[in-house]
Structure formats: C-alpha cells, structure tokens
Design goal:
mainly alpha; disordered N terminus
Length: about 170
C-alpha cells in the first residue's frame, strides 16, 4: 500500500528491512528522527513556502515533507505489526493533512498578495495574517496528533532508546 502525505512521495512501502543497512544503523537513524520530532513540540505549516518565508519558518519546525521522512525511517525500526499500524495512521490522515496544507498555503499566498498591492490595506492585511496563523495552527495540531499516534505505536522501550540516543547526541 502506498500512502502519500506530501503530495506525491511514496510513503509506505519503502525502507524495508532488506535494504542492506545494518539494523542498528536503521534504528539509530529512526531513533534520532523520532526523538528530534518528539523533542521539537512545535509543528505547523507544511511545505510549499520557500525557505526563509512565513508561515513555515514562523510557525513550524516540521512540515509534511519532514513528517514523511520521519515516517519512512520509523517504519524501518519497528516490528511488522507496528509498521502496519503506522501505515494505517498514514493512510487515515493523508487527505486531512493535504487539505490543511493547502489551506495554510492559500492563506499565506493571500497575505503575500495583499503585501504586493499598490496600496496597502492594513485592516485586510491584519485579517489575512490572522487567517494565516489560524490555518497554520490547525495544521500544527493535526501534525501533533499524528506524531502522538506514531509515538504510541512504539513500545516504551523503543521510546526510551530514542530518548537515550538524543541525550547522547546533545552531549
């Protein structure tokens, strides 16, 4: 089953255990990704915005592309049963995340359009800014829910190993 949560990248069938990398390396990579994901706590507006432009840099550290990459690595460090559960989560949220991402991107484009007008309407710009933030927050809340669901699929021992790995990396 292929599930897309980033507008076209295959989500579910890549990253098999037969890819040649050592199991420990896969676990370390997946652990690092999940730990950084869980440690950020702040997620929000997805891709579609150039680097250095709001709303992504303003509201978010994790976008749909990053979420996809994390997912791809996580499924390589868990059991087949956990992989199936994670794939089900990805499939269930795909359309919702895409819709929220499109809303956030559209709100951003509206705000930018107002900024590029010959005459600036401050009241309209303030409404557009509020709409952009609201859209980003809805997307961030949904991404947080997905991350929580993925973390709950992992065992306490798996999460503890991730936590230990993050501590080692932080020095």
């Amino acid at each position: 089953m292929n599930v897309n949560i980033d507008g076209g990248t295959k989500l579910a069938t890549t990253g098999s255990l037969a890819d040649g990398r050592s199991r420990g390396m896969r676990r370390a990579l997946g652990g690092l990704l999940l730990a950084s994901l869980l440690a950020t706590g702040v997620v929000g507006v997805a891709g579609g915005h150039p680097a250095g432009h709001a709303p992504r840099d303003t509201y978010s550290q994790i976008d749909l592309k990053h979420l996809h990459a994390i997912f791809e690595h996580l499924i390589t460090v868990v059991s087949p049963e956990q992989q199936a559960a994670m794939r089900a989560i990805g499939g269930a949220v795909h359309e919702d995340l895409q819709a929220l991402n499109q809303q956030a991107s559209a709100a951003h484009r509206r705000k930018v359009g107002l900024l590029l007008q010959g005459r600036i309407d401050r009241a309209a710009l303030e409404r557009a800014r509020a709409d952009e933030i609201e859209a980003a927050e809805r997307l961030a809340e949904r991404i947080d829910a997905v991350l929580l669901d993925l973390a709950e699929v992992m065992t306490p021992d798996q999460r503890a190993r991730l936590r230990d790995h993050v501590k080692e990396q932080e020095g």
